[in-house]
# Entry
Amino acid sequence: MTYNEFKKIVKISKEEISGQILERNRDSIKVKKEEKVIENLIRIIDATLKICSKKSFQAMSIRDLSAESGLSGGALYSYFSSKEELLVLIQTQGREIANRVLVDQVVKSSDPVEKLRIAIKSHIYLSEAMRNWFYFTYIEARNLPKNEQKLAIESELQTEKLFIDIINGGIEEKVFRDENVVLVASVIKAMLQDWYLKSWKYRNRKVSVDDYADFVIHVAESILLI
Amino acid sequence: MTYNEFKKIVKISKEEISGQILERNRDSIKVKKEEKVIENLIRIIDATLKICSKKSFQAMSIRDLSAESGLSGGALYSYFSSKEELLVLIQTQGREIANRVLVDQVVKSSDPVEKLRIAIKSHIYLSEAMRNWFYFTYIEARNLPKNEQKLAIESELQTEKLFIDIINGGIEEKVFRDENVVLVASVIKAMLQDWYLKSWKYRNRKVSVDDYADFVIHVAESILLI
DNA sequence: TAAAAAAATACGAACGTTCATTTATTTCTT
DNA sequence: AAGAAATAAATGAACGTTCGTATTTTTTTA
# Structure
């Protein structure tokens, strides 16, 4: 699988995402016409992610968001009931998509070596396709309210668990070395995150997403393969 | 070298750090008595790092800092001329210390394998000894003014260059495999950073700093050693 | 050495600004 | 025309910063 093939397989339309957000947040969205909601949620989220790739969510004012999204300050409050709710909304949806796509891809194989490759590639490709989402989810997690922070941490650990399970499977089947599984999973995760946290660096150096994914697989297999 | 040995060798006293900050910032510090400056800079920086391990620098108000440091809002402005300057001041000093200690350690050996081990251990141990500094420097870099952001990026690339040079040395001496040097250095860096970015995770799992450093060395050598 | 004077430092209320949010009004849509 | 949606102006709280005053420390005087 290459990045281009991945993008064809995994369709993540903005309309679909907005639709899900609408379902989750009917109560706090005051606008009734679904089309309007979906259209404007897309504009709001696009604008937020764009602004927050340059400055923090806190530093983004409602005026900034209004200017970038083309909606007035007052109109924005028809789509969320507080700035903090907007933060939570984007974070929750981001985690949901990431987790769903990743799990969907991994179950496609039952061979541990293949599973590990798929998991690494899917994560990197997904974080490339939704770079702003991933960056935002990572960097703004600490500004969430306490209970939402807990959910973010759980989600992070769940993703890691997915890798732990794959590696354990490989050790049982004696295709992987008996390494410290938790540490192996941790450093794989660290490598995956580097792709979207330092995207500026890799772009400057002309490292393609396929190059990077292959290299991370190479590293993982250097540690694990017998 | 273990973490405890490292701490004995590398003395990083708060007084020394504050003294250096005073030297760098004589102009904007209005208080004349050196002792006072050093004592209060320590309080201010400790308070800032403590608060910012829980919320962002932006979210920290001068009133918060006043309460935590025990100095009045007015008094604080005798030690820096704006909140932004305080951010820059801490970041600059943090980078300076990190770079100096790392370079000092690495020159101690001329063997690539040994050099790589020292570089990895020093970085992880240093980031453990100054965890709040490192976390703050990483997480708040994006809130710096444009020109300071450039310096932060340069510093990041310089650290990576240090690893690149070590690896290239090893390849020339034919003790390391001829891998993609830039990518190897990148993922090593990613693993190093994970230690202080996810310290909560490793502490919960009772992974010691020595365990982690040894493991990162193990991974690096799995990729590189012939 | 002790009191008085001067200097240095710290304080905290007050200022102007900016922000998130609300409200009153206007503009679309059907 | 009636209901829905968007706007623009208004509101009050919170922020960084300043500044006149109070307190502490140092120096001078006797």
Summary: Residues 30-33, 36, 66, 71-75, 78 of chain B lie near DNA strand C (CB under 10 Å from a C1'). The mean pLDDT of chain B is 97. Residues 146-172 of chain B form the longest helix (27 residues). Chain B is about 75% helix and 0% strand.
